[in-house]
Design brief:
The structure is a single chain. The chain has about 450 residues and is mainly alpha-helical. The protein is built from 17 helices and no strands. Helix 1 packs antiparallel against helix 10, helix 2 runs parallel beside helix 10 and helix 4 packs parallel to helix 9. The longest helix has about 50 residues. About 50% of the residues are buried.
Amino acid sequence: MARVLRSASWLLIGYGGSQALRLAANLILTRILFPEAFGLMALVSVVTVGLTMFSDVGIGPSIAQNARGDDPDFLNTAWTIQVIRGFGLWFGACLLAWPVAQFYGEPDLALYLPIAGISLVVAGFNPTRIETAHRHLLVGRLTVLDLWSQVIGITSMVVLALSTGSVLALVVGGVIQTVVKLLLTHVFLPGPANHLRWEKRAADELVRFGKWIFLSTAFWFVTSQGDRAILGKFLSLEVLGLYNIGYFLASFPMMLGHAVAQRVLIPVYRDKPAKAAPQNRALQRKLRFGLSAGILGLLLVMAFAGPALTQLLYDARYLSSGPMVTLISCALIPAVIGMSYDQAALAAGDSRSFFAFSAIRAVVQVTLLLLGVVQFGLIGAIGAVGLAGVLVHPVLVWLALRHGVWDPLHDLGFALLAGALGGAALWLHWDAISGLAAGQ
């Protein structure tokens, strides 16, 4: 429990610090650049994140849950796969650059995507000591190194933006941040250095576990990035940029929850399975209630404060992001309520069931997104995200029951409380939301 709390504290510090730096950078860069720049960068991110997720073979979760997670042969084989994958991702970014530029009607993407893809090659060389630190809930030093790399990357973005006034500053700054993280983790994280190694047994274990992770993260891309990929076709770059800023503000509580759930709950589910002893179930319930209360509390704060916060932080060009913050925060509530359950499947090595849930969630959300944006524009697309979270929750309950971790009292209590408060936030800002709908 001490390791769990210490690791969770460092994750909170790291994520909170990271978001504070991102917000500071966002505030500076929005004054140097223009809304369309953030829309264009959103499309670059959709492609690079998509490539990363569509090729994820679950190296991190494999190291976290596998009994050989500290074996040098296993780690070096995982690192070798990771390096090969990095070069493949950059090649994919180069191949997709021109078709994506044509699809969205933005010729600059043909230049920006190959440059952004360099960061995918660099990240492939990140040491497995990163995952080892997470496996043992020892993330203090790693958190500090992550924050330093972000500080240097953001500084480079600002300097380049001042000198060029171009979206290229954001693209190159991202590459610089990735390079700095690689150097810092290689130098300052303890443990043996990685080298190229191919052990067939380790490779077979990684592939056997990772094949379902590969498919799951492909569908997770659709869930987490599908809105921007779809909206980029239906909305102008300016509106997409405003949406991207609104999503950044609204979603940071949920992203924090995912980070904590993945890094903390997998070791807890692995070492203290709920079916093994009543005290294990009690420990998991405490962690689940604490996680949900904290994340939903932050999400509801953003729902109530979104328009005022946007007005305080940004200039008049970005005020339309305010009601978007309220809408997106409320739409994310159903997904936050169940975010702790799917990690139980990964901890048990049941990546196949995790894939089934991910696939169903992605299909439902994309279908509703397309229907929503075609019929009701941006408002319909945001509402579709919330409705999808409600419709797929029974599938998540099935997954939780399969591994003995479902907590109906938790789900019902937080659904009633967060639903009532989210409804109040929508009512409070209804005029601004109606204005947003009328202006589409």
